Amino acid sequence: MNFSKHILVTGGAGFIGSHVVRRLVRNYPNYLIVNLDKLTYAGNLENLNDVAAAPNYRFERADICDAAALQRIFDAHQITDVIHLAAESHVDRSIEGPMEFVMTNVVGTVQLLQAARASWGNETNHVFHHVSTDEVYGSLGDTGLFEESTAYDPRSPYSASKASSDHFVRAYYHTYGLPIKMSNCSNNYGSHHFPEKLIPLMIHNIIENKPLPIYGKGDNIRDWLWVEDHASAIDAIFHNGRIGESYNVGGLNEWTNLELVHYLCRCMDDKLGRTAGTSAELITYVTDRAGHDKRYAIDACKLSTEIGWQPSVTFEEGLSKTIDWYLANQDWVSKVTSGAYQEYYEKMYIGR
Ligand code: NAD
Ligand code: DAU
Questions:
Q1: Which ligand 2 atom lies nearest to the CA of residue 185?
Q2: Statement to judge: residues 173 and 83 lie in one domain
Q3: Do 330 and 203 share a structural domain?
Q4: Which positions ≥6 away from 301 have C-beta within 8 Å?
Q5: Which long-range contacts does 199-203 make (Cβ < 8 Å, 24+ apart)?
Q6: Domain identity same for 218 and 83
Q7: Catalytic annotation on 134?
Q8: Which residue, by CA, sits nearest to atom 17 of ligand 1?
Q9: How would you class 148 by CB atoms within 10 Å of its CB: exposed for 0-12, middle for 13-18, buried for 19 or more?
Q10: Which residue's alpha carbon is at the smallest distance from atom 35 of ligand 1?
């Protein structure tokens, strides 16, 4: 079959990547979708069971730091476009061990840029879409929003590595004319989210009747977006965004961590048939994250006015769907929380 585009999606077995792959495979049967993933602790091919047999889907296990593997994959699949999500993504792990973040997020991104440049030369009918984070902008005070023009001010090893990768992507546009696009999104939540991040960890611990660890006072603020709305934004920017431009993605949905966990506890009490207030008794205050960014909040006006993107669900709807998915997929949770996860959990939380 002739495909009109051959899109390489990196990190497609992870949380956001699997939603992007599923959306592209289903909505664009005329595109070949090649999922490149190293399958680290965060990557799980079962996230894509429902599209794995589709005629327009391929999987390649590879490390984005491996230049020879990238060249082979670009050649073998005649890659025309890239949507780059592969990364080490957890701030707490970056504090424990920054080097993996430098390798994958910085060196891996540059290797991918090199592979695209070698394969596409000076042709401009391609897109290299780099998926990044609002954390590159640093930390907000009580007011204001991150705009695309906000100066970069990363504070954690994770955000410093993502900021560095963003700078390299822009440098390849300005220096070599590589046709790039970028998006910087706020905190995502939804199905298939590894239970090390706040929302899936809390859902998992509530089900298991384990402590709910709140860092510091719980007054840090995050701006939450349903992962399928992030996938729809990536689709919209990939197709309709301007070359060389960055787009912020977010849903104007700020919560303090403590308010959010209390709300989650109320929803879970209801869904689990527990007496109101039962799950909130599990809340435990623990030592704060080092260098903990106070507040993130996104201004997504450029994306909505230029491209017409809007989120499709309210937080209440998205969170309800998310909890239902975890309750219905406890076998997935058991699988990803076996083995190395226990060691991680004990190291990060026991006695904290
Ligand atoms: P994730 O940790 O769930 O998934 C990352 C995926 O990348 C995994 O499948 C992993 O196996 C793969 N990977 C890691 N190192 C690799 C390597 N060297 N080579 C090939 N594959 C490798 O991450 P996520 O939360 O889905 O985030 C995806 C992207 O979106 C990241 O670039 C992240 O910075 C960005 N982002 C995430 C959020 C969020 O809230 N999760 C928000 C904004 C932006
Ligand atoms: O803003 C986008 C970023 O959001 C992405 O770039 C990152 O990849 C993603 O991991 C996420 O980063 P955060 O650090 O904001 O997410 P996390 O879920 O780790 O934490 C959310 C907030 O909850 C943060 O203020 C720390 C707090 N927290 C987290 C955990 C895991 C707790 O209080 N307790 C916890 O156990």
A1: 2
A2: yes
A3: yes
A4: none
A5: 199/224, 199/260, 199/264, 199/319, 199/322, 200/326, 202/261, 202/264, 203/264, 203/268, 203/322, 203/323, 203/326
A6: no
A7: yes
A8: 63
A9: middle
A10: 132
What pLDDT does residue 67 have?
A: 98
Residue closest by Cα to atom 32 of ligand 1: 85
The binding-site residues of ligand 2, defined as CB within 6 angstroms of any ligand atom, are 89-91, 133-135, 186-187, 197-198, 201, 213-215, 220, 222, 257, 289, 296
Give the residue, out of 130, 139, 197, with the most ligand 2 atoms within 8 A of its beta carbon, to mutate for a pocket test. 197
Contact, 276 vs 194, CB < 8 A? Answer: no
How do residues 269-296 score in pLDDT, each as one tens digit? 999 999 999 999 999 999 999 999 999 9
In the block, which residue shows the tokens 């006015």? 305
The pLDDT confidence band at residue 1, using thresholds 50, 70 and 90, is: confident
Say whether pLDDT at 181 is over 90.
yes
Pocket perturbation via mutation, ligand 1, pick of 9, 16, 165, 248 by most ligand atoms within 8 A of CB = 16
Residue 88 designated active-site: no
Identify the CATH number of the domain in which residue 206 sits.
3.90.25.10
Whose tokens are 């506890």? That residue is 265
d(CA 51, CA 46): 10
Residues 200-211 have pLDDT tens digits of: 999 999 999 999
Q: What is the pLDDT of residues 212-251, one digit of tens each?
A: 999 999 999 999 999 999 999 999 999 999 999 999 999 9
Give the chain's domain count: 2
Nearest ligand 2 atom to the CA of 289 is 26
Residues 148 and 35 in one domain: yes
| Residue owning the nearest CA to atom 37 of ligand 1 | 133
Answer whether residue 351 is part of any domain: no
Q: Do 198 and 73 share a structural domain?
A: no
Marked catalytic residue, from 63, 88, 135, 235:
135
Residue 194 CA to residue 196 CA, distance in Å, equals: 6
Provide the whole-model pTM: 0.99
Q: Is the pLDDT of residue 339 over 90?
A: no
Query: Within 10 Å of residue 281's Cβ, how many Cβ atoms?
Result: 11
Same domain, 123 and 153: yes
Domain residue limits at 176: 5-186+227-249
User: pLDDT per residue over 30-59, tens digit each?
Assistant: 999 999 999 999 999 999 999 999 999 999
Closest ligand to 284 CA? Answer: 2
**69 and 100 part of one domain:** yes
Pocket test for ligand 1, best of 8, 9, 10, 15 (most atoms within 8 A of CB): 15
pLDDT per position as a tens digit, 254-275 = 999 999 999 999 999 999 999 9
